[in-house]
Amino acid sequence: MIYSDKQYAITEGQLGKLRHALAAAQSEDTDATGEQSWLRDAQADAIRSQIATLEAELSHYKLLKSGEITFAKTHSLENLPSVLVQARIAAGMSQTELAERLGMKAQQIQRYEASDYSGASLDRLIGVCEVLNVHTTGLFKSDDTSKGFVFSWSNIDDVVWNQLPAREMAKRGWFDVPRKGDVYQLAREYFMRAAGPQFASAYHRKKMHGGSMPNEYALLAWQARILERAQDIVETYDPPEFVADDRWIADLVALTRRKDGAKRAQALLLSKGIILVAEKHLSGTYLDGGAMLDHDGRPVIGLTLRFNRLDNFWFVLLHELGHVFLHLMDGLRYDFFDEEETVGDDEVERQADKFALDNLIPEAKWDECLSRFALSEEAVRIDAKNLGIDASIIAGRIRKERGDFTILQGLIGQGQVVPQFEDDGDELV
């Protein structure tokens, strides 16, 4: 890679010499023997390869200096050394000028760049990033067993707005696009209006629990939609202030027996100061539900209903309520997003899982359920009646614990959730 105008001039000189060498190789005696001809061709091919490499480096340097390359603002840590060099060149800044901005000698910058910043301290890297206006993406992945990701932006200036799924957002009618309108600028304005800059900051880190890493910008957009619709509900119904008292959860679980229990659950939660919104997931989010606090500190739960099953609805809802009661109020500064089918070793997610399982079926009661072993629909119905819950709750738990999603399919309430929310006026499936 070329690091400076001086190196550019040297490379141009090397390129000229190689071109002369190629011309000389091609003009050698055409009457050479077969072996000599082969060596001459091999030499010419090697020179051509070197010429192509130098030409590419010269062109890249020229493009960077001219500003013709669009330089993304947010980058992965793995690419940071190369990005810092390219950002300096694109800014029209020499190694000496960067050194002066940092209060150090130009030779040190030369050594840093030549060694891919291998000897630079974290403080020094942060300083270089600040001068060059380069930001790293805040993605942290835990180990393979925990299936967890955390996305973080230090502030709203770190958001790369053209990464939002703007066209999908517009297609769903989240905002109108006038003729010749900039869809990404409109998506940015939508986010600022629906959520606000604080939701792309360290105060609202996004904790995703799932087997597949989601598109963080699709996640951000979906959250903005949830918050927008939650605010509409608040303005319409003026719910009471939330109190962290979960003694009413038994009333919620009792609604599983009602045909319209899912919709009734939304009303019950509202009466307790918790806003429940159903909104289809965006492409690339692998999402079942999320829990967050709005700008007034009010709990908001979003569900995608992507599986459209009663067992999934009730478990995800109780899991997100676990986050509300156990985590949202303790200063973690996380917004929680979950893929329900994933089993991991994340302590926070285990706590939310346990909250859901224990409230749907207390452990002592679960131990008494004969359907765990009989595996018949009749046994499941008998246990459900004894527990005062819908059979889908038991069927779903058995399927998940056994890892067999082919059994008890007639009891999981397939297709019975989305119709309860269709009056909300949003596409859910």
TrEMBL record:
Pfam families named among the record's database cross-references: HTH_3, Peptidase_M78
A GO MF term: DNA binding
Superkingdom of origin organism: Bacteria
Coiled coil: none
SMART domains hit by this protein: HTH_XRE (SM00530)
Domain HTH cro/C1-type: 84-139
Family: Belongs to the short-chain fatty acyl-CoA assimilation regulator (ScfR) family.
Identification of the protein by name: Helix-turn-helix domain-containing protein
Species of the source: Frigidibacter mobilis
Organism lineage string: Bacteria, Pseudomonadati, Pseudomonadota, Alphaproteobacteria, Rhodobacterales
